[in-house]
Each structure stands twice: as C-alpha cells, then as structure tokens.
Amino acid sequence: MVKIARVFGLIGPLVAYTFIGVSIHLNPWFSLEGHALSELGDPRKEYCRYPWFYNIGLEISGVIMALFALGLLPRSRSGIGRLGSTLVLFGSISLSLIGIFPSGTQLHVPVTTSFYLLTPIGLLLMALSQIRRDLLASLSIIVTILSSILFASVPKWHGAAIPELIGAIGISISIWILCLRYLGRDQ
Q1: pTM of the predicted model, to two decimals?
Q2: Could you give the CA distance from residue 126 to residue 150 in angstroms, rounded to a whole number?
Q3: 2-26 and 161-177 are packed helices; what angle lies between their axes, rounded to 10 degrees?
Q4: What is the CA radius of gyration of the chain?
Q5: What tens digit of pLDDT does each residue of 119-142 get?
Q6: How many CB atoms lie within 10 A of CB 168?
Q7: Which of 81, 128, 146, 162 has a CA 20 to 30 Å removed from the CA of 178?
Q8: Residue 178 and residue 72: Cα distance in Å, rounded?
Q9: Which residues contact 2 (CB under 8 A, 6 or more apart)?
Q10: Can you give the pLDDT at residue 133?
C-alpha cells in the first residue's frame, strides 16, 4: 500500500493541475487576476464552458489524494503523524467535495476552506513527525508555511485564483517531498 500511496501522492496534484489547465483553456473569459478557480466549475454561469469537466477533475484528484493519505497512515508511528495523515485525508475529501458542491452552492465555501486549512496543517504535522529522522521533512514544513504566508499576503485581486494557486503549489511541493523522502524510505 505504501508504494501505491507514493504514486498517488506524486500524480494527484498533477491530475488536478491538468484539469484546471484544460478548463482555463476552454474558458477564454477566465483570468487569474480577476476570478476564482471555482468559477470554472460554476454551472450557473452561462458563459462557463464545460463546468462539469473542472468539477470532475477536483473529484478525481481528491479521491487520488485520499488514497495517498490512507497510505500515509501505516507509516505514521507517532500521534502527530497519525493526526497529520488524518487531516490530509479530510482535506483530500474536501477537495473532492469542492467538485460536488461547485461555486454558488451553499457548501462550496466551507468545503473549499476545509481543503485549504486541513491539508497544509496535516502536511505540517506529518513533516514535524519526521523532523528528527529526515532534515528534508523540515523543508516541507518551510514550503507549507511559506505558501500559507504568501496565500494570506497576496495583494487583493478581484478574484482569488492567484492566492488559490499559491496555496495549491505549496501543498503540492510538500506532498511531493513527503512522497520522495518519507514514503520512499524502506521501513
């Protein structure tokens, strides 16, 4: 399960970025400076082309990332590590739920907020649980913290896409570091 989880962790973010990129390409009205990514999946917007494609992409990548998080649990030997794995699992489920509850629905903001809070906190805890065993895990902590700071300090745009992408990139880099170092080691 650990090797499969590693693969899921490596490809999960790439799947999300592929669906997001194709959705941006299909919707020439979209701009990073003026919109939120979730607008690509808003079925209420008549000008939004193929919102289902964007939403399915989030659902698929959320499932892949949940499988990654489940693979972390057997490797989590400390309470902090298990809590971190569990938070990443709940964050991944929240990512899928963003696709199920697209922009404009009542639960969209809570599930989006859950993803952007639970996932970095979970990754931070995972990295903290490994800091004595692997210095590179501390790099994961730094990347997660820096992405959160950048996410919070980006100038106020008319839309949220840039801070959303900054947060997602920080999450992705942290996941890849954990996959390559933490899941890459023999037990």
Answers
A1: 0.89
A2: 21
A3: 160
A4: 16
A5: 988 988 888 888 777 777 777 777
A6: 21
A7: 162
A8: 10
A9: 71, 74, 75, 183, 187
A10: 79
How many other C-beta atoms lie within 10 A of the C-beta of residue 4?
A: 13
What whole-number distance in Å separates Cα of residue 158 and Cα of residue 179? 35
Distance separating alpha carbons of residues 146 and 40, to the nearest angstrom: 27
Choose among 185, 186, 176, 187: nearest CA to 68. 176
- Per DSSP, the residues of 94-152 read HHHHHHHS-TTSTTHHHHHHHHHHHHHHHHHHHHHHHTTT-HHHHHHHHHHHHHHHHHH
The pair of three-digit structure tokens given for residue 177, joined into one six-digit string = 């570091």
**68 near 93, Cβ under 8 Å?**
no
From the list 166, 185, 161, 165, the residue with the least C-alpha distance to 30 is 161
pLDDT in tens, 38-91: 999 999 999 999 999 999 999 999 999 999 999 888 888 889 999 999 999 999
* CB contact at 8 A, 69 and 81: no
What does the block give as tokens for 142?
Answer: 């730094």
